């Protein structure tokens, strides 16, 4: 039901009953009971007006009047506003037309009994400043109805908005304190979203003054926003009820032995309502998902451990009471398509020489970036320039992702010579989160072609880059979810253009081997996370570590190229084992 329909249904009967109070003569002829009803209705109307004043409605109506009297925008200005705020436009249109995706998709195709319980849950919007899509409203109701859950929606569907809607509902019921735990890079995003989307007050529990801020939050309430590391130093306050514990990017607590996981589990055990949010809940290991389930439901986690060994079907039905996942294609009918293109390039002689040296050295990470080691003869770099130039000629913005800082430095040098538009970044792990957001804001605001350079790990969390519609991946990743997360920063709710993704690959060597491995992992992940039914194959097939993968690929490449000598694979240099490789990863 639309909000104005609810207003009419509430006020129309009151206005009718209060009509005699508009004049002395009418009150005289209304009779004793009529006068009493009129005075009672007037009191209720006065209370409604006071409630509206507290919510700031007079200011909102004043702004609406100004907007209505303003001259119509030009076509160009209107289109720019639509591009900037398209998610809000589509959300309002869906609310007005009541056009929603099919109910099964919006509800994650969960069992009828669980879905019905969520549908029956009321959702108070008096402390919220944003309209919800149908699937988002269902998600918020699911969290409220089930109390301790995992929200596994695909990236770009607004998990943050759903969490804020839950907190706003609970605040309307009188709950005073909420806690959000997230990576440090998301603190700014959470603070901004809470302020913009609700009447709640965010309190950042981070930095040198976090101890004082924590005590103030315990005393006064609000939405505490903190990091996994800071949470370890905070005691669970006794006798102070927590309305909701939100754990964002919850796969960060997949290891039950880690201190951050134990800190989250300690707080979760003392909280009635817990929401774990992650777009990739199982990533590379089904066992990791079991660990998340244990945090919200220990008994169910134990049952999943039994399933892990036998690979029984019906996985989704078993976890339905605690796990909700929807995919973009199922619920965002207006989302433009995404086109993936693998750009296979024959390595140049200099590329091959650099690659052969990396294989002989046994350095997996150097093998992965060898295509950029000698820029003047780099086949990948030549193709990257062509893609960026074509995008610029069409007025499109580009984001270039790489795992390696050295590769981004090479790309920055190549594009900085002119003719490719304004270049922003690179955004790396050493750039503070606030400065990353500033760079994305500037990239979004600049007119004309532009390029944003970013380390793929640095933008996996929190940043929304819908201004770009062309994505370049400088090299394949060891985990398909890393690529998916990067692309989802561009192809998400609010995107109005078709997104083109170009993955730069060299024939032969490490790129081909990583692509084959990623395709296998993606199929297995799809069986669990998307269809949510246990695959025929053993779940252990998903548990391939980066170290095992690196050793195997280096050994195979040494054998193929005939370098390194007999048994040389035992000398493989893995990610993080030496200075340059550690700097390359930037973790």
Q: Distance between the terminal alpha carbons, to the nearest Å?
A: 47 Å
Q: What is the fourth-level CATH superfamily of the largest domain?
A: P-loop containing nucleotide triphosphate hydrolases
Q: Are there runs of 5+ residues with pLDDT below 50, and where?
A: 308-312, 529-544, 566-571, 576-587
How many beta-strand runs?
13
Q: How would you describe the shape?
A: globular
Return the structural class.
Answer: alpha/beta
Largest sheet: 7 strands, parallel
Name the CATH architecture of the largest domain. 3-Layer(aba) Sandwich
The rounded Rg comes to 27 Å
Number of helices: 27
- Strands ordered across the widest β-sheet: 3-4-2-5-6-1-7
Strand content: 5-15%
What is the level 1 CATH name of the largest domain? Alpha Beta
Topology:
Layout lengths: L2 H16 L5 H6 L1 H24 L2 H13 L5 H10 L1 H12 L5 H4 L5 H8 L14 H13 L1 E4 L7 H14 L4 E6 L4 H11 L4 E4 L4 H11 L1 E6 H4 L12 E5 L10 H11 L4 E4 L8 H11 L1 H13 L4 H5 L3 E2 L3 H4 L6 E8 L3 H13 L2 H6 L9 H15 L3 E6 L2 H11 L6 E6 L5 H13 L4 E6 L14 E4 L6 H9 L10 E8 L3 H21 L15 H16 L17 H7 L2
Parallel strand pairs: 1-6, 1-7, 2-4, 2-5, 3-4, 5-6, 8-13, 9-11, 9-12, 10-11, 12-13
Helix pairs in contact: 1-3, 8-9, 9-10, 15-16
Descriptive key words:
587 residues; alpha/beta; Rossmann fold; 4 domains; 6-stranded parallel sheet
Overview of this protein structure:
By secondary structure, this protein is α/β, with parallel strands linked by helices. The chain folds into four domains: 3-69; 73-100, no CATH class; 103-331, 3-Layer(aba) Sandwich (Rossmann fold); 338-585, P-loop containing nucleotide triphosphate hydrolases (Rossmann fold, 3-Layer(aba) Sandwich). Helices cover 51% and strands 12% of the residues. It has 27 helices and 13 strands. The protein has helices at residues 3-18, 24-29, 31-54, 57-69, 75-84, 86-97, 103-106, 112-119, 134-146, 159-172, 187-197, 210-220, 228-231, 259-269, 286-296, 298-310, 315-319, 328-331, 349-361, 364-369, 379-393, 405-415, 433-445, 480-488, 510-530, 546-561, 579-585, and strands spanning 148-151, 177-182, 202-205, 222-227, 244-248, 274-277, 323-324, 338-345, 397-402, 422-427, 450-455, 470-473, 499-506. The strands form two sheets. Strands 3-4-2-5-6-1-7 form a seven-stranded parallel beta sheet, with helices on both faces. It has a six-stranded parallel beta sheet with strand order 8-13-12-9-11-10, with helices on both faces. Strand 3, helix 12 (210-220) and strand 4 (222-227) form a beta-alpha-beta unit. Helix 1 (3-18) runs antiparallel to helix 3, helix 8 packs across helix 9 and helix 9 crosses helix 10 (159-172). It starts with a helix and ends with a helix.
């Amino acid at each position: 039901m639309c909000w104005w329909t609810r207003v009419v249904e509430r006020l129309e009967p009151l206005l009718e009953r209060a009509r005699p109070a508009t004049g002395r003569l009418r009150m005289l002829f209304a009779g004793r009971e009529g006068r009493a009803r009129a005075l009672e209705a007037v009191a209720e109307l006065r209370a409604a007006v006071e409630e509206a004043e507290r919510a700031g409605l007079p200011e909102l109506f004043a702004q609406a009047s100004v907007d209505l009297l303003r001259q119509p925008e030009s076509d160009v200005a209107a289109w720019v506003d639509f591009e900037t705020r398209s998610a809000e436009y589509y959300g309002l249109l869906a609310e007005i037309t009541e056009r929603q995706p099919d109910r099964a998709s919006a509800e994650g195709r969960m069992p009828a009994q669980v879905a019905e319980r969520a549908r029956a849950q009321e959702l108070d919007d008096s402390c919220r400043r944003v309209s919800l899509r149908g699937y988002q409203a269902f998600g918020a109701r699911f969290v409220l109805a089930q109390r301790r859950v995992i929200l596994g929606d695909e990236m770009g569907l607004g998990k943050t908005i759903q969490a804020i809607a839950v907190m706003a509902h609970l605040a309307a019921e009188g709950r005073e304190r909420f806690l959000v735990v997230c990576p440090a890079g998301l603190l700014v995003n959470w603070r901004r979203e809470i302020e913009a989307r609700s009447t709640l007050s965010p309190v950042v529990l981070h930095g040198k003054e976090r101890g004082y801020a924590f005590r103030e939050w315990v005393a006064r309430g609000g939405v505490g926003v903190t990091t996994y590391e800071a949470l370890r130093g905070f005691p669970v306050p006794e006798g102070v009820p927590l309305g909701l514990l939100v754990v964002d990017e919850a796969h960060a607590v997949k290891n039950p032995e880690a201190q951050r996981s134990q800190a989250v589990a300690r707080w979760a055990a003392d909280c009635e309502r817990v929401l774990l949010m992650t777009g990739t809940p199982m990533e590379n290991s089904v066992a990791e998902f079991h660990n998340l389930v244990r945090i919200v439901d220990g008994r169910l986690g134990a049952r999943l451990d039994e399933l892990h060994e036998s690979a029984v079907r019906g996985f989704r039905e078993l976890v339905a009471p605690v796990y909700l996942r929807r995919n973009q294609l199922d619920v965002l009918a207006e989302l433009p398509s995404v086109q993936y293109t693998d750009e296979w390039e024959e390595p140049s002689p200099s590329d091959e020489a650099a690659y052969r040296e990396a294989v002989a050295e046994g350095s997996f990470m150097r093998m992965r970036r060898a295509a950029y080691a000698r820029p003047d003869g780099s086949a990948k770099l030549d193709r990257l320039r062509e893609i960026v130039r074509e995008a610029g000629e069409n007025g499109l913005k580009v984001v270039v992702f790489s795992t390696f800082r050295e590769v981004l430095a090479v790309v920055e040098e190549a594009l900085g010579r002119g003719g490719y538009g304004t270049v922003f970044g690179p955004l790396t792990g050493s750039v503070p989160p606030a400065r990353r957001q500033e760079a994305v804001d500037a990239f979004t605001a600049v007119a004309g072609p532009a390029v944003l350079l970013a380390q793929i790990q640095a933008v996996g969390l929190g940043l929304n880059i819908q201004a770009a519609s062309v994505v370049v991946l400088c090299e394949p990743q060891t985990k398909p979810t890393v690529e998916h997360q990067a692309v989802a920063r561009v192809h998400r709710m609010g995107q109005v253009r078709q997104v083109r993704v170009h993955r730069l690959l060299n024939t032969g060597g490490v790129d081909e081997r990583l692509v084959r491995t990623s395709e296998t992992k993606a199929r297995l992940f799809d069986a669990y996370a998307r269809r949510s039914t246990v695959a025929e194959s053993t779940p252990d097939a998903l548990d391939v570590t980066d170290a095992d993968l690196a050793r195997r690929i280096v050994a195979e490449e040494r054998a193929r190229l005939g370098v390194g000598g007999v048994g040389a694979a035992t000398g493989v240099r893995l990610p993080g084992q030496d200075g340059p490789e550690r700097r390359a990863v930037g973790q």
